Amino acid sequence: MFKSILDLVGNTPLVESRVLNQKPNVRLLFKLEGQNPGGSVKDRPALNMIKSGLERGEIDQNTKLIEATSGNTGIALAMIAGIYNLDIELVMPENSTKERVQTMRAYGAKVTLTPSDIGIEGARDYAEAKVADHGYRMLNQFGNDDNWKAHYKSTGPEIWEGTEGQITHFVSSMGTTGTIMGTSTFLKEQNQDIQIVGVQPTDDSRIPGIRKWPEAYLPKIFNPKKVDRVMEVSQKDAEEMARKLAGEEGIFAGVSSGGAAAVALRLAKTLESGTIVSIVCDRGDRYLSSDLFK
């Protein structure tokens, strides 16, 4: 028996590709982060940021929290803030899927939508202005070390143990970059030869959860030395792969997960042997109101 829903964060399964991967000596494993209680990999950093902030006395029940999000972090923060009885406002572009907005509100958070033409950068600017002018406090997933440390403490060790130390390549889409930073730090401590592959969108693509940040908005937690290789994926390929994951592997996931899987499969074709782990960061039901699965 679990004492709290938060006890279910982490320890997500690794599932081997049986259809899409055609290289017999290469194992492709999907880390199913949609199995977290909030439905995404962002449960891990959200819990660590809130819990650590409370333990250090940086936030309490009187704190007005605010955070800019493209969706999954906001859902995780809304769920966890509600459990800790914290007041939180979440800011996201107005073209975010309605499932995300409704889920955050269901957990009790205030949701503010900013114009879609200014993207997540505009949402970040809005949140920062409220911190500066109205006494709000931002958890700041883009610059908070508790973000990447969550993956150092959990995601990395789970992958190492789940592959019995046989992992050769780790593939992750890059948004806030917390997942790849923390997991890379742990895995490299175990074996420096493990290759860390980051996934970014091509210049003409808009993929929720994956960004090629302008220099001014580059996450402060990002350290390029922790990524061995960056590979790009188009919006078209990411969306097609998300549909293939659902239709051929039975893995219902979003576009950023499709992007990572597309890169992982491209990588697998270049290898004679190895074990690749690709992050499936959320569930596909976050995208049902979009055109992804039509």
TrEMBL record:
It catalyses: O-acetyl-L-serine + hydrogen sulfide = L-cysteine + acetate. The keyword Transport does not apply. GO terms for biological process: cysteine biosynthetic process from serine. Coiled coil: none annotated. Its cofactor is pyridoxal 5'-phosphate. Keywords: Amino-acid biosynthesis, Cysteine biosynthesis, Pyridoxal phosphate, Transferase. It comes from the Bacteria. Pathway: Amino-acid biosynthesis; L-cysteine biosynthesis; L-cysteine from L-serine: step 2/2. Gene3D superfamilies: 3.40.50.1100. The modification N6-(pyridoxal phosphate)lysine is found at residue 42. Residues 6-282 form the Tryptophan synthase beta chain-like PALP domain. PROSITE patterns: CYS_SYNTHASE. Its EC number is 2.5.1.47. GO terms for molecular function: cysteine synthase activity. The keyword Mitochondrion does not apply. InterPro entries: Cys_synth, Cys_Synth/Cystath_Beta-Synth, CysM, P-phosphate_BS, TrpB-like_PALP, TrpB-like_PALP_sf. SUPFAM superfamilies: Tryptophan synthase beta subunit-like PLP-dependent enzymes. Pyridoxal 5'-phosphate binds at residues 72, 175-179, 256. Belongs to the cysteine synthase/cystathionine beta-synthase family. This is Cysteine synthase. It comes from Flagellimonas flava.
